[in-house]
């Protein structure tokens, strides 16, 4: 059997490696138009900004190593021009010699990745404007910085790559402005979570322009459609990617409207003997099965391994993804998985939403810091739909647990029973994951109703708000119109409250508010606990 693979980054090389591990007899040929293979695309922003990261760290394997290790042929600098699916042949161009030749295949794998999605900006072709997609593009940015020594930069787009580049440009002493056309940073997250990120970046002194669209790039400046001018010697456009599927489409392979190739659980396309993996292919949600395009190296590696197994007769099958992502900007980790609240509501779910603000470890240990967890659950099934977390420490650990819980189909009442690793330097006695489950379980299966800041603000006149913090905390800042009844006085003073009203109780972050909530419920009141307490309210309303 002759296997031909087009593309040799994460997905393509994984196909080749797994196929060879399974079968010593098959012939494997990989064509790559670039000069680098199997590189760490996710490390590119740090390669630009951190001196300790060398090019070799991102490209640890060269074609010769792969050929010898896996007994295969890997041809870099070779572009596949066309696919003849009927004859099972491809046309290839040697980019160095200009020679064009044909090759045949029994099984063909398309792993052509994705290309930057460029918005219609006048002047985007200028020499000081860059996109970041591969090692060579990173090299060009580094060379420009070394040669031109830019003082000010603009990053267009406040997503993963844009914000990672922000940090690394600032590390190089380049004053950087981030311009995002949407009204919030990290549009994959809900507004009530992205606001925490925006607040953090603002406190770091970052110039973050939201709701601004770049119209033109001029000599030394960027102009927005609203008429603002921002000085910039260097411009980095980070506005997403699109599947590089033109070659496959011309061969009759079925794609979605965004260009991503349609595949099944065996990674087979609509054309016989042609497979697709990585950023060029569409995945699907493990929650509801709908198409889901989240191009990440982790998914590409997974698809590649499964495809290599399938082609050589193995039993692996692709089960889909949750769209999990995480990145770091300065000291903050930002992570999300599954659906956000907006997406869940659009799909008709009856959602329960909670905000859980908890330390990552016992507070008396150095390194303890708060994380904000937003969980979205389906009230009908009791299962998680998605989670978003921001914090300085321990975010990745909790997100991975949530991913495992969603993937296994666990209901929220099972979270408390997880036997998680605990010691004061690592966690709290009831881990933030367990607390999240407890809050959701009480809200979905019990009587402890939760109200979000958004819901409260939209229906403020419908509720009497009781602030159960100390008078000192109340006097420092409180929700307008709230009455202050400290928790210790609530049982006695609560008897004088009107039972014909609806109440919202809150403390600073939620724990004391939950205790007050139980008191009010036991006294017979229709009462809600404010999600995330006053701390969450203060962050949300500051941006209104």
TrEMBL record:
Q: Which cofactor does it need?
A: FAD
- Keyword flag Ion transport: no
* Keywords for the protein's UniProt record, in alphabetical order: FAD, Flavoprotein, Oxidoreductase, Redox-active center
Q: Name one GO molecular function term.
A: thiosulfate-cyanide sulfurtransferase activity
Rhodanese domain location is 459-544
State the SUPFAM superfamilies in the record.
Answer: FAD/NAD(P)-binding domain (SSF51905), FAD/NAD-linked reductases, dimerisation (C-terminal) domain (SSF55424), Rhodanese/Cell cycle control phosphatase (SSF52821)
Q: Which family does it belong to?
A: Belongs to the class-III pyridine nucleotide-disulfide oxidoreductase family.
Official protein name in the record: Rhodanese domain-containing protein
């Amino acid at each position: 059997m002759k296997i031909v693979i087009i593309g040799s980054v994460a997905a393509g090389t994984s196909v080749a490696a797994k196929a060879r591990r399974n079968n010593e007899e098959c012939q494997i040929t990989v064509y790559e138009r670039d000069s680098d293979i199997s590189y760490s695309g996710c490390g590119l922003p740090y390669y630009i900004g951190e001196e300790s990261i060398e090019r070799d760290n991102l490209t640890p394997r060269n074609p010769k190593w792969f050929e010898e290790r896996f007994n295969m042929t890997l041809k870099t600098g070779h572009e596949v021009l066309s696919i003849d699916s009927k004859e099972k042949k491809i046309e290839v161009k040697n980019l160095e010699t200009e020679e064009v030749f044909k090759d045949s295949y029994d099984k063909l794998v398309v792993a052509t990745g994705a290309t930057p999605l460029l918005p219609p900006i006048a002047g985007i072709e200028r020499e000081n404007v860059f996109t970041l997609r591969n090692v060579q593009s990173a090299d060009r940015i580094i060379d420009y910085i070394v040669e031109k020594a830019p003082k000010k930069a603009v990053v267009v787009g406040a997503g993963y790559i844009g914000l990672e580049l922000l940090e690394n440009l600032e590390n190089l002493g380049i004053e950087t402005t981030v311009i995002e056309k949407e009204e919030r940073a990290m549009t994959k997250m809900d507004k009530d979570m992205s606001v925490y990120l925006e607040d953090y970046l603002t406190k770091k002194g970052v110039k973050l322009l939201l709701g601004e669209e770049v119209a033109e790039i001029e000599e030394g400046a960027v102009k927005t459609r609203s008429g603002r001018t921002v000085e910039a010697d260097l411009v980095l456009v980070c506005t997403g990617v699109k599947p590089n599927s033109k070659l496959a489409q011309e061969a009759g392979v079925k794609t979605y409207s965004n260009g991503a190739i349609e595949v099944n659980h065996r990674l087979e396309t609509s054309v016989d003997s042609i497979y697709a993996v990585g950023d060029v292919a569409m995945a699907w949600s493990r929650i509801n099965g709908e198409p889901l395009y989240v191009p990440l190296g982790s998914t590409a590696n997974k698809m590649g391994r499964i495809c290599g197994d399938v082609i050589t007769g193995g039993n692996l099958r692709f089960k889909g993804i949750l769209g999990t992502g995480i990145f770091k900007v300065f000291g903050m980790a930002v992570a999300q998985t599954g659906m956000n609240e907006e997406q869940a509501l659009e799909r008709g779910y009856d959602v329960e939403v909670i905000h859980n603000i908890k330390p990552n470890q016992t507070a008396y240990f150095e390194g303890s810091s708060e994380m904000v967890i937003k969980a979205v659950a389906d009230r009908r099934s009791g299962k998680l739909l998605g989670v978003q977390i921001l914090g300085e420490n321990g975010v990745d650990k909790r997100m991975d647990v949530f991913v495992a819980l969603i993937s296994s189909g666990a209901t929220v009442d099972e979270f408390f029973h997880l036997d998680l690793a605990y010691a004061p330097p690592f966690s709290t006695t009831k881990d933030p994951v367990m607390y999240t489950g407890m809050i959701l379980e009480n809200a979905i299966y019990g009587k402890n109703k939760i109200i979000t800041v958004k819901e409260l603000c939209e229906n403020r006149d419908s509720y009497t708000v009781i602030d159960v913090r100390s008078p000192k905390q109340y006097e420092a800042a409180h929700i307008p119109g709230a009455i202050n009844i400290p928790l210790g006085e609530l049982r006695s003073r609560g008897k004088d409250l009107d039972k014909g009203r609806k109440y919202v109780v809150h403390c600073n972050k939620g724990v004391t508010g939950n205790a007050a909530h139980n008191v009010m419920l036991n006294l017979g009141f229709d009462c809600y606990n404010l999600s995330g307490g006053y701390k969450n309210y203060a962050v949300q309303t500051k941006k209104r």
